[in-house]
Amino acid sequence: MCSTPVNVSSIKKRVTKKYSPSIEIVEIRLLSLPNLPPQYHTTNGLPPHLMSTPKKAFEMSIPNFAKILQTLNPDLVIYDFKLPGAAECASSVNIPAVQFLTYSAAVIAFCIHISYKPGEMFPFPAINLCEYEILSLKKLLKDLAVRKFPFVEGLRRSQEIILMKTCRVLDGKYMDYLSSLVFKKIVPVGTLVKESTNRDDHEETMQWLDKKHKGSTVFVSFGSFHKVKELAFEMLYQRTSLKG
Fold it and tell me: What domain of life (predicted)?
């Protein structure tokens, strides 16, 4: 497992003795940038305006990553959506690379559909956006298209398969549609939900949920570093309220 020192310090705490013999953690040192000190070499807690900077720092540090690959000579490189440059680096030393996505297949399929088939309706009407949201998404995708390694480039570089943090029960039809768009097999690795080590920490929440009828509660997650504006949160509340 290769990551920056600030990530490694967090990862080491989670690798138990049971798994430590099979996991080797390797640090990669990114080049220092004026607005990206070492403690910001992670997306966890990174200010929103700096989100693209670690990717730039990694691309500048590709020679360091290449040395790591040449030393370890792994059978496979698994990279996330922000680092498709890792796939190019692996390819240069004849090591296969596949992408691992933590987003749902529904979200990825919808975005790729908008990008590849802008004039067509998404085949699953349950997933839809307001007109102004569609325009905003199209602008974002257009902006990404002019960058050196846009999101779709990361998908393209993945060899034959794409790993996704999901399962067929949740995302089966979207996985199949995404596969037809990118011409790669989508392989679900499960939801990878961390098991709670102390149920007492959530006892109050569990008691509250136990009193609810089946299918009456909606869980909404914005991710570990996404900041929701007050207006967007209010709109989400109104739309979910209308659903009853």
Answer: Eukaryota
Q: What are φ and ψ of residue 243, in 5° steps?
A: -75, -10
Output the CA angle 81-87-91, nearest 5 degrees: 170
Cβ 90 vs Cβ 96: under 8 Å: yes
Per-residue tokens: 236: 């989400």
Whether 216 is in a domain gets the answer no
Distance CA 202, CA 124 (A): 35
Instruction: Output the pTM of the full model.
Output: 0.74
Longest dimension (CA), the chain: 57
Distance (Å, rounded) from C-alpha 27 to C-alpha 38?
A: 12
CATH number at residue 177: 3.40.50.2000
Distance CA 159, CA 185 (A): 10
Encoded tokens for 204: 């109050």
Question: Is residue 14 a part of any domain in this protein?
Answer: yes
Q: Residue 208: inside a domain, yes or no?
A: no
Domain residues for 83? Answer: 2-197
How many domains is the chain built from? 1
Instruction: Note the pLDDT of residue 226.
Output: 61
In a domain, 24, yes or no: yes
DSSP run (H or E) holding 135 = helix 131-145
The per-residue pLDDT for 42 is 76
